Amino acid sequence: MDVSDLVIIGGGASGFMTAITAAENGVKKIKILESSSKLLEKVRISGGGRCNVTNACWIPNELIDNYPRGGKKLLESLSRFATGDVLAWFKERSLELKIENDLRVFPVSDSSIDVVNCLKKNAIKSGVTINIKKNVRKITRKDSCYFKVFFTEQEFILARKILIATGGHPSGYKLAASLGHTIIKPVPSLFTFTSRNKELEQCAGVSLRNVRLKIIINQKIFENYGDLLITHWGFSGPGILKLSAIAARDLYFSNYKFKLLIRWSELAYEDLLRKINDLRELKGKSNLINSRPLPNLTKRLWIFLLDKIGIDKEKRWSEISSSDKKNMIKLLLDDEYFISAKGPFGEEFVKSGGVTLEEVNFRTMESIICPGLYFSGEILNVDGITGGFNFQHCWTSGWIAGNSIAQINSIK
Question: Rounded to two decimals, what is the model's pTM?
Fold first, then answer.
């Protein structure tokens, strides 16, 4: 029976990167097995159809700060294949990328299809066999040299090396566990927050730059500083998404019921008090609704906050009491909202959890428990914040796995 040198389970970003890298470095018989009818689907739909390929964070020590789980383990990996290497890799294969002002990296064409086509074209060009609708149900060791990869009880193929790159799909975790690996329970990451505060709906669409956000769960504090978007269901935006990733596991075990603290101003108490006193003196005849103490507060948000405090928006600045000032400052520096659930659309792309990192050699991406078995991408307990970091991990782990398999293959 014919034996494949490498069988890759999962037709996503990291699986294709592994296949292309291994093939270009001399591995001959490579098969990609995708259970669905669609290859590279997450690549296609990511970034609103543009594909956020990576992030222009060039220094590995800084890059790892964007991974709530896996950061330190990734340092050596990202030192070998990081953002600049990704840009060069795609450029060598005729796909130009561009860096936007927020450091996210996209194809120049703004089309994720170009990324998909680049990966498919180079895999086929390198001699990789691609199979769709191939659902792997079981993997066993035939002997010390081969794996049996089963599609049914009777139908199977043989492989010298196996790479599991199934992302957050449960089938990959099941296969990894059957070969001896420990799976950290996957839970959602990168999601928005639902608030029960119906009055907040009047601020839907309001966005603010650089807002300080905080969650306290069981005396653990999670903080982030970033852009905030108020929606008709609650809170979204990069700042919230990053906070959800940082606190993902604790939020899951709290059943997504917690308090979100928002600091609307970076000013210290005394500086904010001074601003309010200046408004009383210089614009005392103005209504509160027409003169805001902070330039970042939109009119709708300011009215909402005044209503929340219980101060009449038509009141003049000269008429506010010491109690009004105290309550105003307290709210601007420590506003509180009860979050009752994740966002309503199940929009999370990323899972926190997967194969425990202590069971994988990050120099090769090979299993420490089961020689000949490799992992790449999101099946591992590695997840990044929004902004291209999860794809960066896919490219990096896939490239390392492909090179490692090729080196072993050349020795044999």
Answer: 0.90
